[in-house]
Amino acid sequence: MQTNRALRNHWKTAVLALTLATSASAWADQLSDIKAKGELVCGVLGTDEPFSFIMNPATREIVGYDVDLCKAVAADLGVKPVVKQLANTARIPELQQGRIDLLAASLTHSKEREALINFSLSTFITGQKVMVKADSGIDQLDQLAGKKILTIKGTTMEQAVRSKLPTAQIVSFDTNPQALLALQQGKGMAYANDETSLAGNFAKLADAAKDYRILPQNLSTEHLALGLRKGEPAFQEQVNKTLRDLESSGEAQKLFTKWFGPDSNMKFASRSFKIETDNIN
Amino acid sequence: MLDIIQTYGLYYLIGQYPNGPLGGLLMTLILAASALVLAFPVGVLLALCRISPFAILRVPVTGIVYVLRGTPLLMVIFWAYFLLPTLTGQRTDQFGTMLAALVIFDGVYLAEIIRAGILGLPRGQMESSRSLGFSYLSSMLLVILPQAFRNMLPSLVNQFVSTIKETSLGYIISLSEVSFVASQISAQLPTKPLQIYALLGLTYFVMCFSLSRFAYWLEKHLAVRSAKV
Amino acid sequence: MNTFDLSIVLSGQYHEWLVSGFLLSIQLALITLVIALPLAIILAVLRLAPYAPLRGISITYVEAIRNVPLLAHMLFWYFGAPELLPPPIKSWIYQHNIEAVSAVIALVLYTAAYMAEDIRSGLRAIPKEQMEAGRTLGFGFISTMRLVILPQSLRVTVPPLISQTLNLWKNTSIAMVIGVGEMMYQAQQVESATFRGFESFAVTTAGYISVSIVITLLSSWYQQRYPVRSA
């Protein structure tokens, strides 16, 4: 095993050298970096109505709740917001590697992820639920044991399903609409996602929505937040300040109404949370 | 299908441009073309190492070629995704990642095409050029490579077809090339996957089939010309 | 960044994920090979058939399949094509492992198109006179093919077929886009569960390369054992 350890040490040195090489370029404070380059790059999903999605095929612009939060942070900094579309699985690596400044990508604040990145105040609180076909005869989570459940790669849903329903068979897709499509086509018994995203899917289903049902029980409660790189206290404070200001000025409520309220596709009656804490328990 | 094209046609062709980044079919073509152009010098370099008389160049490069040929492109893309920023210290976006992966991957395949092109020439070419006083390198650059290039043109066009097909894997890292855009459109129209993916297949077919026909024509044409000479 | 530590992927749950992915990749490749090879032979023989419509079918198939990327095939055969089936059949296959089935369909069609071309070149390497001689002796087209041409072309054809098998092995990775739990899918799953991309990808890369090396060695062994005899 001697060689093995030597090899591992070798790797450690290599990785250390690489880490030093990369961190050198990120020495400067991110906040002043962003101000200097005059733009704030936000990573979004672009496939998750109403957080970030393409609403109008004519303009092909990505809009949504997450996008508006990004714009608010950029406006406070006096820089231009740049929205960049990311794959679910790429969200955290993209942030860590500095290709984006801020994650506004339907991101759940989880204990596991705290080891890798920092989170802003929670910007949305929702439950993870499952959607089934109305004629499937399923009305309890337990009935899904051993069944095929559709979800999305690189998300907290996968972990939630795995812990609530250990015998279920999980099939994960790259985007939320693909998982919905697979449910529609009957390729799985249930589809797990944040309640908000499920509501977005319901809206998309339009007339067909009556054939689907969301089970009342939560798989888990999700605190969504903006994601930031570790070790950037000034930028984090700036982001949180923007969020607090949004809350105190009533702007946060307006954003909620715009994307989730009774006149939106989501049709949520009221807001059950405030943007005030990053406590997820 | 016509109504899909009417509503989403522009998105399909150019992505979010000008209200966002360029994408769609145009992105596919730009990516494939730049990958091939950048991969060519890499391929020449690798090919020269592969046929080099010096083992110190030949052996490691042959090793690299074998390893890369045994690895799926998808794996190369993932490595590029994780390693590039660490190695270069640059912030590479999805386009840069995909481009780098394609350049490395295609470089290896081009190297084999170029090697075959060089080895296909009579040995006398190099010998006479050397005896005229040219060095190995200048004989290679001035005499051998230009002739080999002509012989391998059809293979290069075919490699371009492969590269176009390879760009579709950008889908997996959310690079908004045409396959990704198609899946985005399918997300907007959840009842029409058949039409959308059929349209996607047709798009690739039209591009790649016409190119491979062109390669075939080129092959015939060049064969006739060299027969005359 | 964490230090490089392979132990996390060399034992325990994540190790099991990767091993199950490796085994599934192998299964995908083997099942595809078993179905694609006969299909490719049929296509190649059709291509040389004495009737134009049969040749047309073969040419159309090969060109239509080869000029579309495998990723588009996967998406089409998983999300698109099954929708055309009548509802009872559709719901029956959806109850089963539709992800793997669609992946195998896409892989078979794609691989067969390439293999058919290799087999065709092999058949064309056999002088025309052989076919003519066989026909003169009273054998039909099919029997001459089966008894005279195919056996002779084997030596020329096997090496490119082995290299198509190598491509097939690498291509199984694309099945990840339709949720098939093969090795690449599992590598990404492990990466997103543990955030240890380097370790997960290193082990997976080793998995791909080791099988690729076996296939390459097989090819060189064959070429040494059964060299092409020049006429």
TrEMBL record, chain A:
For this protein, the record's Gene3D superfamilies field holds: Periplasmic binding protein-like II
- Which segments constitute the Solute-binding protein family 3/N-terminal domain? 39-263
Instruction: Name the GO terms of the biological process aspect.
Output: amino acid transport
Q: Which domain of life is it from?
A: Bacteria
**Which is one Gene Ontology cellular component term of this protein?**
outer membrane-bounded periplasmic space
The protein's matches in PROSITE patterns, at most eight in alphabetical order, are given as:
SBP_BACTERIAL_3
Matching entries from PANTHER family are given as:
ABC TRANSPORTER GLUTAMINE-BINDING PROTEIN GLNH, AMINO ACID ABC TRANSPORTER PERMEASE
> What is this protein's name?
Amino acid ABC transporter substrate-binding protein
Q: Which organism is it from?
A: Pseudomonas fluorescens HK44
TrEMBL record, chain B:
**Pfam families named among the record's database cross-references:** BPD_transp_1 (PF00528)
Does the entry feature the keyword Phosphoprotein, yes or no? no
* Record field: transmembrane: 25-49, 61-82, 94-111, 132-149, 196-218
Q: Name one GO molecular function term.
A: transmembrane transporter activity
Q: Residue limits of the ABC transmembrane type-1 domain?
A: 25-215
Q: Name one GO biological process term.
A: amino acid transport
Source superkingdom = Bacteria
| Gene Ontology CC: one annotated term | ATP-binding cassette (ABC) transporter complex
State its location(s). Answer: Cell inner membrane; Cell membrane
Q: Which Gene3D superfamilies match?
A: MetI-like
Q: Which UniProt keywords apply?
A: Amino-acid transport, Cell membrane, Membrane, Transmembrane, Transmembrane helix, Transport
The topology of this chain with respect to the membrane is: Multi-pass membrane protein
Concerning InterPro entries, the annotation shows: AA_ABC_transptr_permease_3TM, ArtM/GltK/GlnP/TcyL/YhdX-like, MetI-like, MetI-like_sf
PROSITE patterns found in the cross-reference section: ABC_TM1
> What CDD domains does this protein map onto?
TM_PBP2 (cd06261)
* Coiled coil ranges: none
Return the similarity comment. Answer: Belongs to the binding-protein-dependent transport system permease family. HisMQ subfamily.
Q: What does this protein do?
A: Part of the ABC transporter complex GltIJKL involved in glutamate and aspartate uptake. Probably responsible for the translocation of the substrate across the membrane.
- Self-association or partners: how does it assemble? The complex is composed of two ATP-binding proteins (GltL), two transmembrane proteins (GltJ and GltK) and a solute-binding protein (GltI).
- This protein is called Glutamate/aspartate import permease protein GltK
Automatic annotation (TrEMBL), chain C:
Q: Cross-referenced Pfam families, in alphabetical order?
A: BPD_transp_1
Q: What's the protein's topology in the membrane? A: Multi-pass membrane protein
Specify where it is mainly localized.
membrane
Q: Where in the cell is the protein located?
A: Cell inner membrane; Cell membrane
InterPro entries under this entry? Answer: AA_ABC_transptr_permease_3TM, ArtM/GltK/GlnP/TcyL/YhdX-like, MetI-like, MetI-like_sf
What domain of life does the native source organism fall in?
Bacteria
- Presence of the UniProt keyword Nuclease in the record: no
GO CC entries: ATP-binding cassette (ABC) transporter complex
Record GO biological process: amino acid transport
Q: List the molecular function annotations (GO) for this entry.
A: transmembrane transporter activity
Domain ABC transmembrane type-1 residue range list: 22-219
Is S-adenosyl-L-methionine given among the entry's keywords? no
- For this UniProt entry, which segments traverse the membrane? 20-46, 58-80, 100-116, 137-154, 201-222
In the record, which residues are listed under signal peptide?
Answer: none
The record's keywords, sorted A to Z, are: Amino-acid transport, Cell membrane, Membrane, Transmembrane, Transmembrane helix, Transport
Query: What family, per the record?
Result: Belongs to the binding-protein-dependent transport system permease family. HisMQ subfamily.
Tell me what this protein is called: ABC transporter permease
